[in-house]
């Protein structure tokens, strides 16, 4: 079984830039357009994972805005915001929740070079009171107009690209796969290259076969 080398190299180049320590947690962001736009931005920035808290009767859905980015960014559903926050904190993430609270900091004054999770709420209501209390830091994006907030997908993009800017200045942008553990990199490389074979292996409880430097299954 062989894969054309250019596609395999493209998959490698994207994985080489992925960052496991930069993520987004969305609370009740249910509109397909917004979720799709956020996934697309995460793919563009190099974010590996997106976490979501949604109602049971409203599972995450996407539209054409995603441009297929949901294939390359892992989506992790959580049953409630407390569970999601606890999971991320156990992984060492610092959680920054968007909020207009009087104690909120201008996002440009924060350091996003360490493990960072941006937490954003529903399109209309923002973060819940429970979520706000669980944050390590409340942040806001300054507005100069009459409207006091951005669309949630635009706000997410603003925050992620600020984190990317800071990391670039600090020399922390991965380009050789150092943003992922070796085992995770190897696992994703096979799943992205041979998704159907990976699905069969998972179904049968089998290990993934090795692949060559040019993408061939050995």
- Counted by DSSP, the helix tally is 7
- Give the helices and strands as they follow along the chain: HEHEEHEEEHEHHH
The geometry reads as globular
End-to-end CA span: 9 Å
Main sheet characteristics: 7 strands, parallel
User: Which structural class fits the helix and strand makeup?
Assistant: alpha/beta
Helical proportion, percent range = 25-40%
Mean of the pLDDT scores? 90
Strand content: 5-15%
Provide the low-confidence segments as ranges: none
CATH-scheme architecture of the largest domain: 3-Layer(aba) Sandwich
Q: How large is the radius of gyration?
A: 18 Å
What is the CATH first-level class name of the largest domain? Alpha Beta
**Annotated CATH homologous superfamily of the largest domain:** SPOUT methyltransferase, trefoil knot domain
Can you tell me the CATH topology of the largest domain? Alpha/beta knot
The total beta strand count reads 7
What is the domain tally?
A: 2
Widest beta sheet: strand line-up: 3-2-1-6-4-7-5
